[in-house]
Amino acid sequence: MNTVLVTGASSGFGKAICQKLIADGYKVIGAARRVDKLSELARQLDDNFLPFQLDVTKKDAVENLLLSLPDKFKPIDILINNAGLALGMEPAYEANYADWEIMVNTNIIGLMHLTRIILPEMVKRNSGYIINLGSTAGNYAYQGGNVYGATKAFVKQFSANLRTDLLGKKIRVTNIEPGLCGNTEFSNVRFHGNGKQAAAVYQGVEFIKPEDIANTVSWLVNSPKHFNVNNIEIMPTAQASGGLKVIKNM
Ligand SMILES: NC(=O)c1ccc[n+]([C@@H]2O[C@H](COP(=O)([O-])OP(=O)(O)OC[C@H]3O[C@@H](n4cnc5c(N)ncnc54)[C@H](OP(=O)(O)O)[C@@H]3O)[C@@H](O)[C@H]2O)c1
Prior knowledge:
Bound molecules: NADP nicotinamide-adenine-dinucleotide phosphate
Distance between the termini: 62 Å
Structural class: alpha/beta
Strand content: 15-25%
Strand order of the largest sheet: 3-2-1-4-5-6-7
CATH superfamily: NAD(P)-binding Rossmann-like Domain
Family: Belongs to the short-chain dehydrogenases/reductases (SDR) family.
Oligomer: single chain
Pfam family, one: adh_short
Helix content: 40-55%
Shape: globular
Number of domains: 1
CATH class: Alpha Beta
Keywords: Oxidoreductase
GO molecular function, one term: oxidoreductase activity, acting on the CH-OH group of donors, NAD or NADP as acceptor
Protein name: NADP-dependent 3-hydroxy acid dehydrogenase
């Protein structure tokens, strides 16, 4: 039975991915900072789920995860780099710089920590799968997307470069690029707990749900090993790129 490490398991996509992969018969390590949320999830799942408190921005803590895993959950066969966040939607000239630093530290540096620490073991075994949670924000610019979109463009290019470094090895890499998804904490976090502003994002839209992303992950990890999906971009039918705008008579 394969073992999967899912970061950002306390909420949204990560939580749904843990639920789905446990149902599929995997052993799952669910990592996040909020232990209460992880314990609540552990109560719903069986003992093939291991809750693990982890802040992905702390390199020592990521190293410690590998060292302190019980034998049952070793080795990690599949890494799902899902932990991430957007903070703020102000234009770049008004954005909170501390928010920018947190996004870079989590979405880029945190993902680098997990990948650099876990990948060598996969290479030694010549087997493994890394699934990264990018975003359509890494593909299309939008107002207020500035650093968040740039972190997800990093995730896209890093995923592609990993594929290149791993050519000739039996290790797969996929970047999942979701558009507008609801029923997660994403917008509550982005708007610093302003529930009204967060709710407005989803009003009147049939959005993608965490279960849709979890089903996509399940399809990917259960697909044949000779088959690599490089990128998968998923949007609600109600969303598409609006094209380039021109402001007349500026
Ligand atoms: N929802 C969307 O519309 C959307 C669209 C495209 C891409 N995405 C991406 O999908 C991923 C999951 O988002 P979501 O919508 O499921 O959001 P969410 O409900 O807010 O979940 C984010 C998860 O990341 C964890 N996390 C944040 N900082 C962390 C840190 N420093 N260390 C460890 N875990 C951390 C959170 O757990 P703790 O707070 O407990 O640590 C939480 O479990 C993110 O990478 C996001 O950028 C989301």
